[in-house]
Specification:
single chain, about 240 residues, alpha+beta, 14 helices, F-box_dom, F-box domain-containing protein
């Protein structure tokens, strides 16, 4: 707080506004609690207009004018009302996932339905960052958000990885298991093939196109089943944790 007050006393107002306008919404709110000067600056329309347009870039000018005129609290009020609206939409996906989970895993059909639900709600990248890439959620919700951003929103992998790291979920792991029909060999069909991969969200985003492909296709053609769950800690990692304690 003292550092923010010192900055206030030593820089012009236009530079202070530029600093506030470059921050994420949580940082804007934190900075606004430092002093009366920062509270007034961080609550101004100049700051919140940028936050609104950066988060919901698909809003048309007509939509923006209509919503700001109907909202007496200006751009900050618009941001809060839109955030609440998106929170309700995101909660419907969370509720669907909770109902679809069976023994802490989800089948590919329901997984892809959750992705389709996200598409229909038209959540953007920043909405996903807020509501799905959080460490207190089931890692499968993290995965749903990650998959939606990469495959359907087309967000570059480096931006997704940055969001994972910022929200402290990049090292969380998921386990993807899939079963393929056994090949035919001299008139006999061999046993079905079982595949299993445990991978971190960061590695999945960065380079693993095979797993993304399995998740995107689901149970089709020769793949008869796909199951997704949180990766179980290995005995080695558990022993390491005990040793640290």
């Amino acid at each position: 707080m003292q550092q923010a007050i010192n900055i206030q006393n030593s820089i012009p107002d236009d530079i202070a506004l530029k600093i506030a306008s470059s921050l994420h919404v949580f940082d804007v709110c934190s900075l606004g609690s430092c002093s009366r000067f920062w509270r007034d600056l961080c609550g101004s329309d100049c700051v919140w207009e940028g936050l609104c347009k950066n988060r919901w870039s698909s809003l048309s000018l007509d939509d923006i004018h209509q919503e700001t005129h109907s909202n007496s609290k200006g751009w900050k009020g618009l941001y809060i009302s839109k955030h609440i609206d998106m929170a309700v939409k995101a909660a419907s996906v969370t509720t669907f996932m909770e109902k679809a989970l069976a023994f802490e895993s989800i089948e590919a059909g329901n997984y892809l339905k959750a992705i389709e639900l996200l598409k229909s709600l038209q959540l953007g990248f920043e909405d996903v960052r807020f509501f799905f890439l959080k460490p207190n959620l089931d890692v499968l919700l993290n995965l749903i958000g990650l998959h939606y951003c990469i495959v359907w929103l087309g967000v570059p992998a480096e931006y997704v990885i940055e969001a994972l790291e910022r929200n402290r979920v990049s090292k969380r792991q998921v386990c993807v298991q899939w079963w393929k029909l056994g090949r035919w060999f001299y008139g006999f069909r061999l046993r079905d093939e079982f595949h299993s991969r445990s991978i971190s969200l960061e590695d999945l985003t960065a380079s693993d196109e095979q797993i993304i492909g399995v998740l995107s296709r689901g149970a089709v053609h020769e793949v008869i089943r796909v199951q997704i769950s949180a990766a179980k800690p290995t005995h080695t990692s558990w022993s390491h944790q005990v040793a640290q304690v």
